[in-house]
Design goal:
There is one protein chain. With 250 residues, the chain is α/β, with parallel strands linked by helices. The protein is built from twelve helices and eight strands. The relative contact order is 0.15. The structure holds 2-phosphoglycolic acid.
């Protein structure tokens, strides 16, 4: 049985004082959650969040990292740096990074390898845009993205990769994929992983859905056969709303 993993992606929101206040109220709301709870926060909040989640079941992740460990990369943060302060997870290849910051399948692959080399658990985003969905090539796009992202990883690393299937047309738009559609797309991804790495690996990989997840649709999405939780943007910014998503099964 795969566990459910529900991660908030704060994107470029929340100052340290807001982050601390958030955690202070959120912590008690999710303390009996069955799902694993992760907050992926801006770099400037990481240290404050790590201090404030001590002794709770909340895990902390970053939203990006560089694939080199150090060097002349002004403005970048490496996996080694994240690990050194106690970060556990890192989002890699979010569609906003692919779209606005020239992230490619190749940089995504390098970053995943570097995340593992530094003891971080990657949450890797894949997903098609509206035109690709409408022209019927969504399966081809997302299975290719998955294949390229995971290229060269060991079976053990693939098992420990969290994939977030996020159709771009559903991100921040209020349009959610139907539970059936999202579940089907996730099955495509799982089948591709089975084809390359074998059934045993594929059945262990956590694959989340992301794109306008909210408390009103979380249960329907997360109780399908293949959706193993979610990556939640806008609805993770309010502790009450996000706690309802985390506690979708209560
Ligand atoms: P959303 O964002 O929940 O606001 O649609 C999801 C994401 O981009 O990870």
């Amino acid at each position: 049985m795969r566990r459910k993993v529900i991660a908030g992606n704060w994107k470029m929101n929340m100052l340290p004082n807001e982050a601390i206040e958030y955690i202070q109220s959120f912590e008690s709301m999710v303390k009996s959650a069955e799902a694993e709870v992760i907050l992926c926060v801006p770099y400037t909040d990481l240290f404050y969040c790590l201090l404030n989640v001590q002794g709770t079941n909340i895990k902390i992740g970053a939203q990006n990292m560089h694939f080199e460990e150090n060097g002349a990369y002004t403005g970048e943060i490496s996996g080694k740096m994240l690990k050194s302060i106690g970060v556990e997870y890192v989002i890699i290849g979010h569609s906003e990074r692919r779209e606005y910051f020239a992230e490619t399948d190749q940089t995504v692959n390098k970053k995943i390898k570097s995340a593992f080399a530094n003891g971080l658990k990657p949450i890797v985003c894949v997903g098609e845009n509206l035109e690709q969905r409408e022209t019927g090539i969504a399966e081809e796009i997302i299975t290719k993205q998955t294949e390229l992202a995971l290229e060269g990883l060991t079976n053990e690393q693939v098992k420990n990769t969290i994939i977030a299937y996020e159709p771009i047309w559903a991100i921040g738009t209020g349009k959610t994929a139907t539970a059936d559609d999202a579940n089907n797309s996730i099955k495509w991804i799982r089948n591709k992983i089975a084809e390359i790495y074998g059934e045993e690996v594929a059945k262990e990989v956590i694959i989340q859905y992301g794109g306008s997840v909210k408390s009103s649709n979380a249960k329907e999405l997360f109780t399908t056969s293949d959706i193993d939780g979610g990556l939640v943007g806008g609805a993770s910014l309010k502790p009450e709303e996000f706690s309802k998503i985390v506690n979708y099964n209560k």
